[in-house]
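User: Structure please.
Assistant: Input sequence and predicted structure:
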Amino acid sequence: MKITSLKINNFRNYKKLVLDFNPSKNIIIGKNGMGKTNIVEAIYVLALTKSFRGSKDDVIIKFDEDNCKVEGTVVDDYKIDYKIVISKDENKKVWINKKKIPKLVDYLSNINIVLFTLDDLKLVKDTPNTRRKLINIELSQFSNEYLKITTLYNKLLKQRNSYLKTLYLNGNASQDYLDIITSKLIEYGIKIYEYRNDFIEEISKYITNNYKKITGLDNLKIVYKSDFLNKTKEDIEKLYKKNKNRDITSGVTNIGIHRDDFEFILDEKPLKDFGSEGEQKNAVIALKMAEIEIFKDKKNIIPILILDDLFSELDKTKINNILKFIDNDIQTFITTTELNKLSKKITNDSKIFVVKDGVVEVKEN
């Protein structure tokens, strides 16, 4: 899968920008604040309809404009044109080959991306919510059904939490409605659990070997943590019944897949507690490379890889550990403030874009 061209209007600091990309490696260089990350962010938005920077939709629209537009041509087995328009006063609108797609869920999972940012280096020690977000993003690229079920689950969870508060304030309110919501929540939760458990098992196939390639050691593994782990539907129903009074008192659902997590284990000990900073970074590198392998294995697709500003944080050894996994079949976008951290082989094989004050020029190798 390759994105051959990108056209953006009123996106961040760009009024209008048209770029053609190398099918192999693309380096985007510039000082901080010049707009280099905005380019790869636009590619990500085209694929997943939202920013990886946690920004609200209206923030990515250029100041004093009402909407922004991102268009791109992606080639896999054949060429497909994609477009997304994000407006301040309207919902997002998307098109595939000039045909408007009514639902975002039917647009997603067409362009597959593996993103590696500085924030990912904190993944080991970050919150469970951050790790769940990673799983959700990756699984939404594999399955529209997963995205639909997760959306329904989250709506039901809000309804259940709201009714728990009603029950707490009004002891005479019927619990029948709570039981109905709970039953449906369990049904969706089991399906989400199955998707996530399969995904973690797939990660496990690759992460140990990837870590060995990086460090020479095969002592890393990843473990899925869930209230649903190794439980039957009847076990889960009993668990919810057991926690019902606690849920009513607290006004929240205290168990369920919305509290899932996964953990890196090194030498049979939690990496977040006992691993060095270098070991943690190497584990995240191994995880990201495993994601690429899963796309290849499960979807028979080579995803687009984005490495955003990693080289300001990583030393040359870790940079080489990442780059040695990257072959010419993987279209890669690298943003950086300096070229000297990259080998001549990488730069010679890349198309280099120089960004300065929102102006992009192609640098001759």
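The chain has a mean pLDDT of 92.
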